[in-house]
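Q: Entry one of two.
A:
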Amino acid sequence: GLGDVYKRQAFLNSICHEIRTPLNSIAGFSELIFDESLDTATRQEFRQLIQSNSVALASLMDNMLELSQLVSSEQPLPVEFTDIYRLCVEEMAKLKETLHNPNIECIITGDKDEATAPTNAFYLSRVIGNLLSNSAKFTESGTITVTCNIEKEKRQLVISVLSLIHISEPTRPY
């Protein structure tokens, strides 16, 4: 129905934005490395940015192809009872390993003992990891909290990622 059309359009808009970001960086920095007025170190930095954005773009394309295969597959995803809280802990540990920012505190809260559910652990781990990675990308200082709770009355397991950033007061000239 019409709702599906809007969902598809929103998805395509999101994908276009995700592709445009590294492409714009690649195009802009590619142009700048030919600017003779820039020193060698700056141009080398731009080459590294082009490389890292190329890798990000290739990864995004790989993820889109994988998603397309999953959506079009006739086979259901294999699921098994999984300790979801443990997945959250593991993904937070991975984030901490790659996070080189002492101004960000990582917190895990929730139902440690009852957070099991039938799921595909591999893909759920990727979702949690992506949420945490996106949160870290936009947090310079503050906390990143992942929460895993059971809502028994609704028969739901809820995972949330929250970033609280510290905003310093602007300095005012007197």
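Q: Entry two of two.
A:
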Amino acid sequence: DNQNKVQLHWTVDGDSIHYAAEVETTGWVGLGFNSNAGMSNADMTVGWRAASGSALVTDRLGVINSQPTRDAQQDLINPAVNQYNVASPTPTPTPTPAVAAVTTVLQFTKRIDTCDASDHAITGGTTRVLYAYNDATPSGGEDSFTHHYIRGAKSVLLTGRAPAPAPMGADWLS
């Protein structure tokens, strides 16, 4: 983002990608993938650290002007949410209320192609990476997060593989 409050890190490992989204917020974080910058049918992951210290992370499907719905097939591998004070980047179970600058890190691994119709396969070429967050920490269960405070999208070459060029026929010069 323009204010450097959102950073995405990823590593391709065979047929999977490990993601870590670092966001300067005390609330929930959402990360999504789509062929366009829109929320509709985006493959989303939303997570936060509850006041109790437990992490809530779910695989979701984007819906226009509504909360993303829970994906029937949860394809996240080792999902986690950690928080740390920006001045002292040591993960803590819960943020220190007196410190305003807290970073929430949403981490998970997902197969490049999960074979789930609700997920976005990461193929060659760029993928639209979507992010959203809200500073309010949800107080209920996995559907208790509120509308995003900030959102954005960026085209990213996640796999480092450009799509194969289309073959040119014998008449391509004509």
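A: Comment on entry two: The radius of gyration is 18 Å. Confidence is low (pLDDT under 50) at residues 96-100.
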